[in-house]
Amino acid sequence: MRERKFSFVVLVTVLALVFGAFSGSVVSVFADSKPDLELIVKVNEKGFFDEKDKLLGPKNPLKVPKGAIVKVVFVFDEGVKSLAIGDVHQIAITADDSWTVESDKIWFFNGKSKVTFVAGENGRTQYRGYCIIDCIGMDHLNNLVIHVV
Ligand SMILES: [Cu+2]
Predict the structure, then answer these.
(1) What's the gap in Å between 130 CA and the centre of ligand 1?
(2) Distance, CA 131 to ligand 1 centroid (Å)?
(3) I need a surface site. Which of 89, 92, 108, 132 has the fewest CB within 10 A?
(4) In angstroms, what is the span from residue 51 Cα to ligand 1's centroid?
(5) Is the pLDDT of residue 102 over 90?
(6) Residues 12-43 pLDDT 10s
(7) How far, in Å, from the CA of 76 to the mean position of ligand 1?
(8) How many whole angstroms from 82 Cα to the centroid of ligand 1?
């Protein structure tokens, strides 16, 4: 009787592990589902920059089509000779209704982090991005603008 109970526990444990692994892979497949649009945003002490090193901000907003699955990849872009090479950044993207998504921390040894969202969901028309860590560039990392078009 005792043995049967033990094997039942083992079976439940195995099932839980298998199911856990399965559901985990389902979740990661969804998270990795192909975005409609992938945007690279370089982050350094001088601000947010696009792939061509053009400063992003209110005068140069990112534009995303309504309904698109948008992936924004934040890239740690501090110069090796800059004091800011030791900095850590973490970017929040927020909408007027206070919806927010945060990147992971990016720094010298973890140079990239992505966030994914559906542009214009729940009637959102614009997003702002800013660094939520007190860093050398904090005065310049507060005005990333994303317009839904
Ligand atoms: Cu920062």
Answers:
(1) 8
(2) 5
(3) 108
(4) 18
(5) yes
(6) 555 455 455 544 444 444 455 689 999 999 99
(7) 10
(8) 14
40-72: per-residue pLDDT in tens?
Answer: 999 999 999 999 999 999 999 999 999 999 999
- Tell me the CA–centroid distance for residue 137 and ligand 1, in Å: 6
What lies within 8 Å, CB to CB, of 44 at 6+ separation is 76, 77, 78, 79, 82, 84, 137
What residue spans define the domains of the chain?
1-33, 35-148
Ligand 1 centroid to Cα of residue 110, in Å, is 14
DSSP 50-118: -TT-PEEBTTB-EEE-TT-EEEEEEEE---TTSGGGG--B-EEEEETT--EEEPPPBBTTB-EEEEEEE
Neighbours of ion ligand 1 (CB under 5 A): 89, 131, 133, 135, 141
Per the model's pLDDT, the better-predicted residue between 143 and 29 turns out to be 143
